[in-house]
Design goal:
2 copies of one chain form a homodimer.
Chain A: H1 5-8, H2 12-20, E1 25-26, H3 27-37, H4 46-58, E2 62-66, E3 76-80, H5 82-106
Antiparallel strand pairs in A: 1-3, 2-3
The structure holds a DNA duplex.
DNA sequence: TGAGCTACCTCGCCTGTCAAGGTATTTTCG
DNA sequence: CGAAAATACCTTGACAGGCGAGGTAGCTCA
């Protein structure tokens, strides 16, 4: 089963930040890793991905720099900032909380 | 901690359908029950709620009728349809799947 | 009387997703 | 060698859902 876009909406930034916690990386690779980790059930569309990078950088959550693969470097690397790490910590807590709430509301678990 | 709107986006319909599985109800009451169940961490804004009712009814997931609290009945009751029940079953499965995927992506569990 | 609650509803803005389209380099394979 | 596919980046405009703001109306209680 694949997961609809609206369900993932709002988790995009957290997913990217979490991936960057494993080290600097560039767009294409980040997306592939996310797809693999999700077992193919989910992957960002490119437009979504680059929109998110832009937003994250504007908000100071990540910084970027061009790779030095020689002339014609075509990879823009991203690194998580301190603010990004704090944001991720908050996002993780929110996700944990969200699971509890939605289990109660959608699965009718516990009262 | 409260949960941001974008995180809940896309779960609105499932939450309402799940609530209607416990019996017919009307907007105001549905919303109060949801808030209680969520421990106050979450509640629909009215505009969101009525937009969702409209969408769900147009899609055949629910039907509505005016209550008979005497003259000037001011409550519109909603009932889940067979299609709505099927949709809810699918939504529940999707939510279960979503939890696995997001645990892997955000919390870096397994994988 | 009037404050506050119940109960419904609409309009228009905002934000995130993404289809579509574009550019440029490198690799692979016949 | 030539072509196709993959890598790698990016923008624009449309669309959908959430919701702030605003509106109507009845009931209750001090």
């Amino acid at each position: 089963m694949s997961i609809s876009a609206d369900i993932l909406r709002g988790h995009t930034d957290a997913i990217i930040l979490a991936q960057l916690m494993t080290g600097d990386s560039y767009g294409y690779e980040i997306n592939k890793r996310i797809s693999q980790r999700a077992g193919g059930a989910y992957g960002f569309k490119e437009a979504t991905l680059y929109t998110a990078f832009k937003r994250l950088e504007q908000n100071g959550m990540i910084t970027s720099y061009w790779g030095d693969e020689g002339p014609g470097a075509r990879r823009r690397y991203y690194a998580i900032t301190q603010a990004g790490m704090r944001q991720l910590a908050a996002d993780r807590q929110e996700w944990t909380e969200t699971k509890k709430v939605l289990d109660a509301l959608i699965l009718q678990k516990e009262g």
